[in-house]
Amino acid sequence: MRFNCKPQDANAPRAPWWLTTLAVGGIFFLHFPIIMVALYAFNTEESAFSFPLQGFTFRWFIAASERSDLLEAVWLSIKIALIATVSALVLGTMAAAALYRRNFFGKEAITLVLILPIALPGIVTGIALLSAFRLADIETGFWTIAIGHATFCVVVIYNNVVARLRRSAYSLIEASMDLGADGWQTFRYVLLPQLATSLLAGAVLAFALSFDEIIVTTFTAGQQQTLPIWLLNQLGRPRDVPVTNVVALGIMLLTTLPILLAWRLTQGTEDTAGASK
Predict the structure, then answer these.
(1) What pTM, to 2 d.p., does this model score?
(2) Which of 42, 94, 209, 229 is most buried per CB count within 10 Å?
(3) Residue 275 CB neighbour total at 10 angstroms
């Protein structure tokens, strides 16, 4: 992966040493817990934390791979993340196509409603969803988790697609229709190629958000146990701490890589209206 960085101006004043030290210290403070989790995933000690590490081993990775309850939680999280992502792709794209160009009464209110699930604290969204499911007499379980995750994943897709549509020339769509293409052909051969990278970036980001979501899931899961809930339950079992560290390291890698990919694909959209929402 290639990262584009603007060249530093040679005449620009250098930051003072104390400001550089504070910046490096702040970054280290933010990432210190992640570093420790990664280190202790390879520690030979079973039930306690001590430093320096007592040894180096891969046996916790083998132990984690043999846990059937862990594998079931991982598979459940993957299925829910896939369903939430596909649902968000359809709904978010349709909402963006309907709202990006036309102005009508209530447009801003609809946009606000779309953004609210991710803007509100997760506990508020979770309580609201649980109340709605109870009013509708719906038992919490697999599908209520997927619906809950789709509510905030739609926002991610919507923002990416709206930003890309605002950058695209509407004259291309008009030219396609003038040349005899119907609506499906215009979408397939003109619009979809322009939206492809924004859809892919939104999809990987939505998958990552759904995969490690825990607050909304706690209210909508019922008896189901996704991977973040499994991880939370394991924290009360001291002898399972090394396996928990291995799983935490795996989640960090699984969610970081899609986010980096989404960031790479959406580079250049910072100047687009709506991209910063």
Answers:
(1) 0.77
(2) 209
(3) 18
Site of tokens 């999809």: 203
Q: Three-state secondary structure along the chain?
A: CCCCCCCCCCCCCCCCHHHHHHHHHHHHHHHHHHHHHHHHCCCCCCCCCCCCCCCCCCHHHHHHHCCHHHHHHHHHHHHHHHHHHHHHHHHHHHHHHHHCCCCCCCHHHHHHHHHHHHHCCHHHHHHHHHHHHHHCCCCCCHHHHHHHHHHHHHHHHHHHHHHHHHHCCHHHHHHHHHCCCCHHHHHHHHHHHHHHHHHHHHHHHHHHHHHCCCHHHHHHCCCCCCHHHHHHHHCCCHHHHHHHHHHHHHHHHHHHHHHHHHHHHCCCCCCCCCCCC
Alpha carbons 102 and 31: distance in angstroms, whole number: 44
pLDDT (tens digit per residue) in 149-202: 999 899 999 988 888 888 888 888 888 888 888 888 888 888 888 888 888 888
Looking at this protein, which amino acid is placed at residue 119? A
pLDDT of residue 99: 86
Q: What is the pLDDT of residue 267?
A: 65
pLDDT beneath 70, residues of the chain: 1-11, 47-50, 238, 265-277
